[in-house]
Structure formats: C-alpha cells, structure tokens
Amino acid sequence: MGEDELHQLINGCVKQDRKSQKMLYKAFYGFSMGICLRYAGNRDEAAEVMNQGFMKVFTHIDRFDTSRPFKAWIGRIMMNVSIDYYRANLKMAYTEDLEKAENVSEGDLTDKNLNYEDLLAMVQQLPQAYRTVFNLFAIDGYSHEEIGEMLNISPGTSKSNLHKARHKLKQMILKAEETANKTNYNRGMDFNPIVAYNGTGIDVRSTFFNNGIRG
C-alpha cells in the first residue's frame, strides 16, 4: 500500500467512514494478528485481542501523528492491548526472585533455524506470565526494568520468568527434535533437525522478523 493511499484511508477512518475502516482492517490484519498471536495462548484469544486493538485504533486514529510510521503506531497498540489482556486475565502472580529460578544458562539453549509455525506454537504453550515476559524481552527488546514497570513486577521476577520460559522452550524444542528424529528414522528418511546447535541461545527475533510480525 502506497503512502498516499494509506493517508486517504487514515483520513477516512478519522471521519468514521466504515469503508475506510474495513479496508484498513484488511490491510493490517496479518501484521496485527501476528503480534497478538505471540502474546496469546491460541488463535481465538489472539483474534479477540486483535479486535480490541482495532477498536482502539479506530477510536484514537485522530491522534496519530502522520509524520511517523503508521505500522509502528498500530503495532504498539496491538502490543499494549495484549499486555492489558494479560493483566486482566492473569490468575496467578509470579513473585519469585531470580535466585529461585531454575538455573538455565544461555549456553544451554539452541539457536535459530526454527520453523516459524513451530516456534509460535511453542511460545503459545508457555504459561501466560512467562510468554509475556519472553515476548517483551526476547522479541520486542525491552529491558527487565522496563518490563517490570509495564507488568507491575520486579526486574528480578521478569528475569526469573524469562529463564523459566527459555527452559520450557528448550524442553519443547528437544522433544520435538527427538520425535521427528525417531519418526523419520523409522520411515528410513533423512532427518533435518528443526534447530542447529551452536550454544549461543535461541535467536527468535530473526524468525519473527522474517515473518514481518514484530510491533
């Protein structure tokens, strides 16, 4: 979509033109859903959060600064709505300090080369508190201090949840690799692992960036 067309749609949405709203929704559906899927536990939950996000987009679009990228603006709204959903639905407060976290080092984790759909499914299986911190730190690049302020938790709790999220992801990755290895071996097929080990940690940013879903 060109800049002129986008600005026309934005102006139409400011005037609450339903056709412009529908076109803008379709144009940014995939991008917005991609962000919400990372934070949600499943597609239905992501769709619910995304629709709440678009409601905010249409409600506050008159405040959008046209000198700035619209994609970044709408991405931030989707992320904030996802975090609001987390706050409203969190059933258990995770208040453990880093000292109580399971000892998982960066060197214990696997590297990139993860299939996007596989990685997304694994992230969605994480407990909501772990998933939210993992997304904010590992993908969106926030510090533990910033995450603490956003989620009303301590930086130590943020670090603890991140370590536990990485530990659970490691277990899921290894299990998926083992299952695929056994399946392909029994079929007499060559096996291509979903990860490549080099001891530098899980590079999830490149996986999500390549799918164009970062906020």
UniProtKB/TrEMBL annotation:
Q: Which InterPro entries match?
A: RNA_pol_sigma-70-like, RNA_pol_sigma-70_dom, RNA_pol_sigma70_r2, RNA_pol_sigma70_r4_t2, RNA_pol_sigma_r2, RNA_pol_sigma_r3/r4-like, WH-like_DNA-bd_sf
Domain RNA polymerase sigma-70 region as annotated: residue spans: 24-89
The record lists the lineage as: Bacteria, Pseudomonadati, Bacteroidota, Sphingobacteriia, Sphingobacteriales
Q: Show the Gene3D superfamilies listed in the entry.
A: 1.10.1740.10, Winged helix-like DNA-binding domain superfamily/Winged helix DNA-binding domain
Instruction: Report domain RNA polymerase sigma factor 70 region 4 type positions.
Output: 117-169
Task: List the SUPFAM superfamilies hit by this protein, alphabetically.
Answer: Sigma2 domain of RNA polymerase sigma factors, Sigma3 and sigma4 domains of RNA polymerase sigma factors
Q: Does the keyword Transcription regulation apply?
A: yes
Single GO molecular function: sigma factor activity
Q: Which organism is it from?
A: Mucilaginibacter gossypiicola
Keywords, comma-separated and alphabetical = Sigma factor, Transcription, Transcription regulation
Name the family.
Belongs to the sigma-70 factor family. ECF subfamily.
Specify the superkingdom.
Answer: Bacteria
Q: Name one GO biological process term.
A: DNA-templated transcription initiation
Q: What is this protein called?
A: RNA polymerase sigma-70 factor, ECF subfamily
